[in-house]
Amino acid sequence: MRSAFELTLVNGPDGDPALVADLVGAGRAVLCDLGTLAGLSPRKLLRVGDVLLSHAHLDHFCGFEHLLRVVLGRARTVRLVGPEGTIERLEHRLASYSWNLAGSYREGVIFSVVEVLESGGRRRASLALADRFRCGQIETYAVDSDHVLDEPRLSIRAVPLDHEIPCLAFALAEPKHVQIWRNRLDAMGLGTGPWLRSLKDAVLADAPDVTSIVARWHTPHGSVERILPLGLLRRKVLEVVPGQRVVYVTDCAWTRRNVERILDLARGADTLVIEAPFLDADRAQARSRRHLTAREAGTLGRWAAVRRVIPFHFSPRYAGRYDLLEEEVRAAFEGRLAPAEPPRDP
Ligand SMILES: [Zn+2]
């Protein structure tokens, strides 16, 4: 029961990049990249509170309108993290539509945008439907870590890579995971329900043992409620274990600095979702487009000692032969294929 994130590549490994990381049981999701999103239900999109944009190439950003239409008239803030220039890009994108009816909405979305700068600093601004998406004041500030989110249930790190332009890689982590044992609930005569989410929140917030937890669940004979001290539940039904980490890497060149930064994010991670657009035999193409090869993707997974690698962003040139890319990644990851030569750039 230690699966913190449920991962879905919206367009499969060969379509536009868009990865949904659903936080199991938390009712929220993170969306990495905004390739076409037509395959994503509004119900799922409405769970997305954080959007992580690696860079603004068309195939990574063209799905924005799909998200916009679903969240437009909702009283919610969507956080969007992207590389330098994301605020202006979004402002221009939104300014290309007429918003004369904005006042007729009772509620409206706010995009809270954070740019991760190559210098290590940040820029941030908000764009709200209520203001017809005119950009508020842009604030520039310094930070001393690469975290763009640091909450008890979710932390996100963002690191710029070189794709000729800056392209962000992300690490999503559940800092601590509260594991609740169903059999121990049964032994105490407790049923499951949304109250378990409150229980997890209380544990993650380090609430005192005397805190009352209202356990409420439904049975065929009606609903049942019991009030229990948090300390008792802490001892009897749950365990706090290290959480999972998922790393998302796309569109980057095989350079020494990129490799260092990727390994720093991915070392020991549970899952590395990584681009593998070209076969090693077509390395020259990969080099000229500032992309990785499948062998390099698998090598990074091996060097970082991750638990599993999910390759994606396959080039359409291999249509019908995608299994070759998958096999090259797997062979390099498992050590059946010699690792890629370390980058030789100065
Ligand atoms: Zn791309």
Description:
- With 346 residues, the protein is an alpha/beta fold.
- The chain has three domains: 5-175, 4-Layer Sandwich (Metallo-beta-lactamase, Chain A); 177-241; 252-278 and 285-313 and 325-346, no CATH class.
- It has helices at 42-45, 58-61, 64-71, 86-95, 182-187, 195-204, 230-236, 256-266, 283-288, 294-303, 322-334, and strands at residues 5-9, 19-23, 28-32, 48-52, 77-83, 110-116, 122-128, 139-141, 147-150, 155-162, 166-173, 176-180, 212-219, 222-229, 238-242, 245-249, 271-275, 308-312.
- It has an eight-stranded mixed sheet with strand order 1-2-3-4-5-6-7-8, with helices on one face. Strands 9-10-11-16-17-18 form a six-stranded mixed sheet, covered by helices on one side. It has a two-stranded antiparallel sheet with strand order 12-15.
- α10 runs parallel beside α11.
- Bound molecules: zinc ion.
- Zinc ion (ZN) binds at residues 57, 59-60, 251, 313.
Estimated structural class:
alpha/beta
Instruction: Please give the CATH class of the largest domain.
Output: Alpha Beta
Number of helices: 11
Number of beta strands: 18
Major β-sheet profile: 8 strands, mixed
Strand order in space, largest sheet: 1-2-3-4-5-6-7-8
Count of domains: 3
CATH superfamily of the largest domain: Ribonuclease Z/Hydroxyacylglutathione hydrolase-like
Order of helices and strands: EEEHEHHEHEEEEEEEHHEEHEEHEHHEH
Enter the CATH topology name of the largest domain. Metallo-beta-lactamase, Chain A
Bound molecules: zinc ion
Percentage of helical residues? 25-40%
